[in-house]
Amino acid sequence: MFPGGKDMRKLWVYFQNEDSDLNIDECGIQAFSVRESYSYNAYQHFVLHYVQSGEGYFEINQHRYHLKAGDGFIIRSSEYVTYYPELSNPWTTYWVGISGHDFEKYIGNTEIMTASVITYQNGGETQKIIQTICDTTLEKEANLPSMYWYKGQLFLLIEALTKEFSAQHYQRALSAKNAADTAYEYIYANYMKDITINHVAEYIGVSRSYLYKLFKQKFLFSPQQFLLDRRLTIAASLLLTTDLSMAEVAEKVGFKDALYFSKSFSKYYGKSPSKFRAQHDYDSYKESKDKTPYQILRPNELN
Question: Is-above-0.85 flag for pTM?
């Protein structure tokens, strides 16, 4: 608990599991009566939260989400997250932690795979199962159900997740060709923004690994390679056609850190941005055939 608030955690139970394929690792219930702010680098594999009542805020990847009853948020290993209640209407949250090699296989084609925040279907099974797991554990904390019961509830939860969120997923799902093209167009148009490939995959509604596979099959390079190439080729053009400083060029092409931009540019072109600007003119650069490892197509040239 962080200073300045009273911890109203009703339940937080960790389970010891020997099965590496699929497990419930923990479950919990927390009623926030005052402002408690939790900020940390997650170590859990996958934790699914459900806002049972009230409102609060969830922050991840420099995005802040205002959530209310019926919403949820997902925390994954190594993510830095912050969450806290709305003072005027503090939330109560339920959560279930899940791990195992098989979990991503089961949810791979759902919104759950990539989303950070979700909205549960009104009256849907997913939140009912989360509540059943947590409430039963609270009621029987002195004599917990067997792990077979928890494993059965986990399979019911996975089934509910795939049904509830695959509907949303398939409403936005595209053919393999269209998914790759859409990702290409999105990166092409938004390279200057603070985007990652996770954002691109979430925008399209597929997992990052699936997007990588589709993109590589179609274009023979990865989405990450394309994002970097798009940014650095535009940066090279700006260096030769403007008087912008290195920091300004970096910001224009989506790099928040000018030093990281300089290192990336130097690795890519074999010389620093300042040396590149001093040694080239725009016409010779434009005519060069080896300025990029592959041709950049405009979206209307995709086929």
Answer: no
